[in-house]
Design brief:
The complex is a heterodimer of chains A (382) and B (471). With 382 residues, chain A is α+β, with helices and mostly antiparallel strands. Helix content of chain A is 19%, strand content 42%. In chain A, strands 11, 12, 13, 15, 19, 23, 25, 26, 27 and 28 form a 10-stranded antiparallel beta sheet that branches. Chain A is elongated. Chain B has 4 domains: 3-82 and 112-125, DnaA, N-terminal domain (GMP Synthetase, Chain A, domain 3), CATH 3.30.300; 150-296, P-loop containing nucleotide triphosphate hydrolases (Rossmann fold, 3-Layer(aba) Sandwich), CATH 3.40.50; 301-372, Helicase, Ruva Protein, domain 3, CATH 1.10.8.60; 379-469, DnaA protein, C-terminal DNA-binding domain (Chromosomal Replication Initiator Protein Dnaa, Chain: A). Chain B has helices at residues 3-17, 20-27, 47-55, 58-68, 98-102, 150-161, 180-194, 205-217, 221-229, 246-261, 282-290, 301-314, 321-330, 335-352, 358-372, 379-390, 394-398, 404-421, 425-431, 437-453, 455-469, and strands spanning 31-36, 39-44, 74-79, 118-120, 170-174, 200-204, 233-237, 265-270, 292-296. In chain B, the strands form 2 sheets. In chain B, strands 6-7-8-5-9 form a 5-stranded parallel beta sheet, sandwiched between helices. In chain B, helix 19 crosses helix 20. The radius of gyration of chain B is 29 Å and the shape is globular. Classes of the chains: A alpha+beta (382), B alpha/beta (471).
């Protein structure tokens, strides 16, 4: 193989693929990145057998070829490239000779034909999602994903396909986040047929973390295809393939109350500060802080108490509609929830001290709720 | 054979043909989903496995399945998930949405099983399906030569270069796990590489007997004979299992003669020389002895180290010289054990996320190594075993006799006490009628030196060791 390409493209390609490598000692080739020439392009692939990523970049190809080299080594080298416009790659006897500007390296590789084959899509993409919306929504959701491997279905994000939108949800069974993103159908008839059959899938959290990593500020669309328990993403020139998690995602919509008795509009930064302070005055793990809404004084009181430490109280002015409420929350989950709020003000919606509370962003004079994102937190029952 | 049995059997065979890492990566959680009209659908857990099995391992699978079910024409893979019903969640914490979530209705997930099989047809296998049982992993190139196996290896190589002309039959013998099968398979691979059209059959004697029994039951003995008589190279492994099976021996004798007369190569292996196989028909024994007999001994330290190094590189695992030496010094008996020890270290390193330093290796192997040394063996056992072996009364062994035979036996006993029981020199001295510790030291040094130079001493010690541990 003898190939020259731009340093920028090569760097980006390595950045997009380097993390998707396996750490299996039994199959060491999974720690490698596959570099091969493919129809006049340079194709870079990596996989850990759960997720596969590949992309093609333009390159001047003098001689076809292929090799796999350790991802970490390559990326460490590439990250420290001296400023130069091009990178030249040459393969001689299973060694990759790589040269950019004043720096040269020889990396020992493994045979490319032992590298796993990354599945290709048989059909076409079903729909696409606006990349920037996803870039906003995904980080908020990912923080809620469960890490508990005894319930594998909760270790992924639920994607529910509807007519004109998808609902993404994540929960660890203590709190739940839901985002609604409008979609663009690639072929409406195909999509409609598909979503009638299959409306709910579970995508591993790590897959979305990779997707997030690949999205650029300039990225327009994320194209998505679903086939045979696998999901395919096309983001600019990067293709990501992932398995789906088997299992049934809980029908979480049932637990979201349709109506709320009390709506409290608060300044985000005030509440966040108060909750963080209150969190200090709790027993580290099973901590609880009390939210009480006082209609008369038009305030929200946040207080906490720990036997050994002491106690604390913050009073925040609020706009309140509906009756008084008081409930206990886990400060950590509350902080996570507040951090998903991107607007200066938010609405806290409550029914009672045992029913789920909801955080939503609000905007405008009348504090209208933005319903495309919902954070639900369960109060601690006494 | 139902689908599960068939797949288990096929996996057993595939496992031999590919590396362990590949096997466990690609064949984990696979199963046969359906089998109809010669079409087999294999369920695989993910897309990667599907691609790999269809593109890289299809021949192996096809061949393995054909071994058990001749009518299989087509195999295909499809992604399938064994429906793991989610464990009912235990809401331990009070603030649990789980109660609400858990109560949710079940919805159908059509992803559970969507057969979209792509098929691989038979034509491409027609040639390869010829069943020779040769495993491509074993070649002369990856056989490590040491003093112990030079002769056997040279003989096998010569045979592979000159079928039926040089040493016919070739008889290889040696203990378990020393590389007989590797050498035998290497001949097959070498021959196939030179001329893929050659008809080769590798078979264990046990399998041979079973095939014969089947053919008798199905009244196809003539077919059976005909297949075997048309072979260019017949390799029979572990021929000692023919002992006692008279009818099989007779059939084998005829096949042997038929092949031998037309100068077809026969290679045989066994764990002992033909003479030592009891109840082997005389006419067979004399024929075995008529060709070339070569033995494979236990590998010496250097060979063991070389083997370890190669195996470690194969597995992409780095071990420093010290650790290698430690393993080679402590795992002596056979190569399989050596590989086992290495695997154990790799697993332990992976599990504990540690580097294989000498100390770690010692720790990881402590069980294996000490397992060889049985607890509770006393000086008394050693003395008794030695006196029995040399046929010298215990009393004489302990008392002051200075006859050559007695002092030799006594020295051996002292040496064994020192090496196997870790007894102190003064302690050994006192066991032998209050001798001085320097006597024990001298004995130890003398025997240590003699073991290096004198085959007889080496053998005596080895046999005694076995005897003691056999208690």
């Amino acid at each position: 193989m003898k190939v020259t390409c731009t340093q920028e493209n090569f760097k980006k390609a390595i950045y997009s693929t380097e993390r998707v490598v396996g750490k299996q000692i039994t199959l060491p080739i999974l720690e490698n990145i596959l570099i091969e020439t493919d129809n006049g392009m340079l194709k870079i692939s990596a996989t850990n057998l759960e997720i596969g990523v590949f992309l093609k970049i333009g390159a001047k190809i003098e001689q076809e070829g292929e090799i796999t080299v350790p991802a970490r080594l390559l990326s460490n080298f590439v990250n420290n490239f001296p400023a130069s416009s091009t990178v030249s790659l040459t393969v001689i006897d299973q060694t990759l000779h790589i040269e950019s500007g004043s720096s040269k390296a020889q990396i020992k590789g493994l045979m490319a034909h032992d590298f796993p084959i990354i599945p290709e899509m048989a059909g076409s993409f079903l729909f696409s999602l606006p990349a920037q919306d996803m870039k906003d929504a995904l980080p908020r959701l990912i923080s809620c994903v469960s890490l508990d491997s005894t319930r594998p279905e909760l270790t992924g994000l639920n994607m529910v396909l509807a007519k004109d939108e998808i609902r993404l949800a994540a929960t660890d069974s203590f709190r739940l986040a839901e985002a609604i993103v409008t979609l663009k159908k690639e072929d409406p008839s195909v999509y409609d047929l598909f979503f009638e059959k299959t409306s709910s899938i579970i995508v591993p959290q790590t897959t979305f973390s990779e997707v997030l990593r690949v999205i650029n500020p300039e990225t327009q669309d994320i194209k998505i295809g679903i086939e045979e328990s696998q999901i395919f993403f096309q983001i600019d020139n990067v293709r990501i393939v992932s398995r789906l998690i088997n299992g049934r995602y809980p029908e979480y919509r049932q637990i979201i109350p349709q109506q709320f008795a009390t709506k409290v509009v608060l300044e985000k930064n005030d509440v966040l500060r108060a909750v963080k302070i209150a969190g200090i005055f709790t027993n580290s793990k099973a901590g609880e802080i009390e939210f009480s809404v006082n209609l008369e004084q038009k305030v929200l009181k946040i207080q906490s108490k720990a036997e050994e430490v002491g106690e604390n109280q913050s009073i925040i002015s609020a706009k309140i509609e509906g009756p008084e409420q008081s409930a206990l929350f886990n400060p950590r989950y509350m902080v996570d929830g507040l951090q998903t709020i991107a607007t200066p003000r938010l609405a806290l919606l409550m029914n009672s001290n045992s029913s789920p509370a909801v955080l939503r962003m609000v905007q405008g004079e009348n504090n209208e709720e933005i319903s495309s994102f919902t954070y639900i937190i369960m109060p601690i029952k006494n | 054979m139902n689908n599960t049995e068939l797949w288990q059997a096929a996996l057993g065979e595939i496992e031999l043909s590919i590396s362990k890492a590949n096997f466990s990566t690609w064949f984990k959680n696979t199963t046969i989903l359906s089998r109809e009209n010669g079409k087999v659908v294999i369920g695989v857990p993910n897309g990667f496995a599907k691609e790999w099995l269809e593109n890289k391992y299809n021949t192996y699978i096809f061949r393995a399945l054909r071994n058990f079910q001749e009518d299989i024409k087509e195999i295909s893979c499809t992604i399938y998930s064994s429906d793991q019903s989610p464990k009912s969640s235990e809401a331990k914490s009070v603030d649990s949405v789980a109660q609400g979530l858990g109560a949710a209705k079940n919805i159908d997930n059509p992803y559970a099983y969507t057969p979209q099989a792509s098929t691989v047809t038979q034509t491409s296998y027609a040639q390869k399906a010829y069943e020779n049982n040769i495993n491509h992993r074993y070649t002369f190139e990856n056989f490590i030569i040491g003093e112990n196996n030079e002769l056997a290896r040279a003989a096998c190589y010569a045979v592979s270069q000159n079928l039926g002309k040089v040493y016919n039959p070739l008889f290889i013998y040696g203990g378990v796990g020393l590389g007989k099968t590797h050498l035998l398979q290497s001949i097959g691979n070498e021959v196939l590489e030179k001329d893929p059209a050659k008809r080769i059959k590798y078979i264990t004697s046990e399998r041979f007997a079973n095939e014969l029994i089947d053919s008798i039951r199905n009244q196809t003995v003539n077919d059976f004979k005909a297949t075997y008589s048309a072979i260019d190279l017949l390799i029979i492994d572990d021929v000692q299992f023919l002992a006692g099976k008279e009818k099989t021996q007779i059939e084998f004798f005829h096949i042997f003669n038929a092949l031998y007369q037309i100068n077809k190569q026969i290679v045989i292996s066994s764990d002992r020389p033909p003479k030592a196989i009891a109840t082997l028909e005389d006419r067979l024994r004399s024929r075995f002895e008529g060709g070339m007999i070569a033995d494979i001994g236990k590998p010496d330290l250097e060979t063991r180290m070389a083997i370890l190094k190669t195996k470690a590189t194969e597995k992409n695992f780095y071990l420093d010289e010290e650790a290698l030496r430690f393993i080679a010094e402590n795992v002596k008996n056979n190569i399989r054990e050596l590989e086992g020890a290495l695997n154990r270290i790799i697993a332990a390193c992976e599990f504990n996320n540690k580097l294989p330093t000498l100390k770690f290796v010692q720790q990881a192997l402590s069980e294996i190594i000490s397992a060889g040394k049985k607890k509770g063996i006393q000086a008394q056992h050693v003395i008794e075993a030695v006196s029995q072996y040399f046929n010298i009364p215990t009393k004489e062994l302990i008392e002051k006799g200075r006859k050559k035979e007695i002092s030799y036996a006594r020295q051996i006993a002292m040496y064994i006490m020192r090496t196997e029981l870790n007894a102190s020199y003064p302690g050994i001295g006192s066991q032998f009628g209050g001798r001085d510790h320097t006597t024990a030291m001298h004995a130890y040094e003398k025997v240590s030196k003699d073991i290096e130079n004198n085959e007889k001493v080496k053998e005596d010690v080895a046999i005694l060791r076995e005897k003691i541990y056999a208690v």
